[in-house]
Specification:
binds aspartyl-adenosine-5'-monophosphate, five-stranded mixed barrel, single chain, BirA Bifunctional Protein, domain 2, 29% strand, 17 strands, alpha+beta, OB fold (Dihydrolipoamide Acetyltransferase, E2P), 436 residues
Length: 436
């Protein structure tokens, strides 16, 4: 069977040294400039732009007319000869032998692709397919892809096995609120808030170290710049280790992601105008109680046993100035599966990984004893009956284990200094947004 490829080169695969060679490029009509005897078409592809130069005296009137009428953002392919020219972008231009119009763009465009005219984020998200034609916006997703690859290779290397757990579930994991109910034949079901229960159950299978990168669904009413109703979480769980060990994995992973992105995505970072800071483990650790003391010193009063508010997180971030862990949380603040410290049950082996702007991850050593877990579920006002499928895994040999969940969008927005979390996910789901 014949395979059709409508281009021979991306724009960045052509250089002035190829003077005289014939190539075929394809992309969108970015701009057209009519200058005396010359007509320039600027073609844009994923990797950049190509200047196509038509000499009016050497081009048929029919072609000139066709090109003049062509709307911006139409899809074209150009077969032409490379000509080295210092004045052209990237030092070369293309002298066309054939211009094919593959699809004509309707007018007017709902969004200015070049980004020269600033659009509201809402307008941009409504026309996301056009918004991502702007390199600044599109490069975020090239980096996102590399971040996911980096996380996978880091965890693979450390013996973690990638798993996929169900997203249609029967029970809440992070407490009774914030669930999206769905109808599952004649029963009620929910969209999964976290792979928590399943990744813990994996510890009873002997798979030992697992990870999952998948959507989490949170029916929170928040309309903030750091919350999504469908987010992406990288989760790990590991057996025969404690919370300190998984914290080590987490800080090394974050540092490795920064290093790898700096190394592999230099051009994308340049387009975004971002310079990644050095991120070196180990990260500073402060206890929850120390955090409260620091906050008091800075005029923010919190009761012991309260979760950290957004202003409290912000103040702490300003004080700490780099990634840090908050450890030794009040047991009452954290979910039922969190292991308390022996002999001081009011605090537990939970941690949050913080970026100065926002929480990035949370995790803990888990309760692995059946009776203790059952009692903890009850103490949190939940019914052990609805957790039966999960509790069963703790009755027949469950090793001690620990894990964490890291928000991919939070990692990206902080790393790339992006204000609104919606920018780092293709099609955000929030309180008002269900399409596109
Ligand atoms: P938690 O609920 O803290 O922990 O979630 C883990 C991380 O996921 C990200 N996250 C979100 N990102 C964007 N929008 C949201 N609405 C949102 N909710 C959560 C955050 C957060 O730190 N089961 C535990 C993890 C564990 O203990 O292994 C859990 O889900 O970056």
């Amino acid at each position: 069977m014949e395979r059709v490829v409508l281009r021979t080169h991306y724009s960045n695969e052509i250089n002035p040294g190829m003077d005289g060679e014939e190539v075929v490029v394809a992309g969108w009509l970015h701009e057209r400039r009519d200058l005396g005897g010359l007509l320039f078409l600027i073609l844009r592809d994923r990797e950049g732009i190509v200047q196509v130069t038509l000499r009016k005296d050497k081009t048929s009137e029919e072609l000139l007319e066709r090109v003049r009428r062509l709307s911006k953002e139409s899809v074209i392919s150009v077969r032409g000869v490379v000509r080295s020219d210092k004045r052209a972008p990237n030092g070369y231009e293309l002298i066309p032998r054939e211009i094919k119009v593959l699809n004509v763009a309707a007018t007017p465009l709902p969004l200015e692709v070049s980004g020269r005219i600033k659009s509201e984020l809402d307008t941009r998200l409504d026309s996301r397919f056009l918004d991502l034609r702007n390199p600044r916006n599109r490069e975020i997703f090239r980096i996102r892809s590399e971040v996911l690859k980096t996380i996978r290779s880091f965890l693979d290397e450390r013996g973690f096995i990638e798993v996929n757990t169900p997203k249609i579930v029967a029970a809440a994991t992070e407490g009774g609120t914030a669930l999206f109910p769905i109808s599952y034949f004649e029963r009620e079901a929910f969209l999964s808030q976290s792979p928590q229960l399943y990744k813990q159950m994996m510890m009873a299978t002997g798979l030992d170290r697992v990870y999952e990168i998948a959507p989490i669904f949170r029916a929170e009413e928040h309309d903030t710049t750091k919350h999504l109703n469908e987010a992406t979480s990288a989760d790990i769980e590991a057996a025969f280790v404690d919370h300190e060990w998984v914290m080590g994995v987490l800080e090394e992973l974050v540092a490795f992601v920064y290093e790898n992105i700096r190394e592999r995505c230099g051009k994308s970072l340049e387009i975004l105008g971002v310079e990644l800071p050095e991120v070196k483990p180990p990260f500073e650790r402060i206890t929850y109680t120390e955090a409260l003391e620091l906050l008091t010193e800075h005029g923010v009063e919190l009761e012991w046993g309260e979760d950290l508010s957004t202003p409290a997180e912000k103040t702490l971030g300003e004080i700490m100035g780099a990634h840090y862990f908050i450890v030794e949380w009040p047991t009452s603040v954290k979910p039922y599966y969190t292991m308390p410290f022996e002999g001081r049950e009011e605090v537990c082996k939970a941690f949050d990984l913080m970026h100065p702007r926002v929480e990035l991850a949370s995790g803990s050593q888990r309760i692995h004893d059946y009776e203790m877990l059952r009692a903890s579920i009850e103490k949190h006002g939940l019914s052990p009956e609805s957790f039966k499928f999960y509790l069963e895994a703790f009755r027949y040999g469950m090793p001690p284990h620990a894990g964490w969940g890291l928000g991919i969008e939070r990692l990206l927005m902080t790393m790339l200094e992006i204000e609104n979390i919606r920018e780092v996910i293709l099609f955000p789901r929030d309180r008002r947004r269900l399409v596109p």
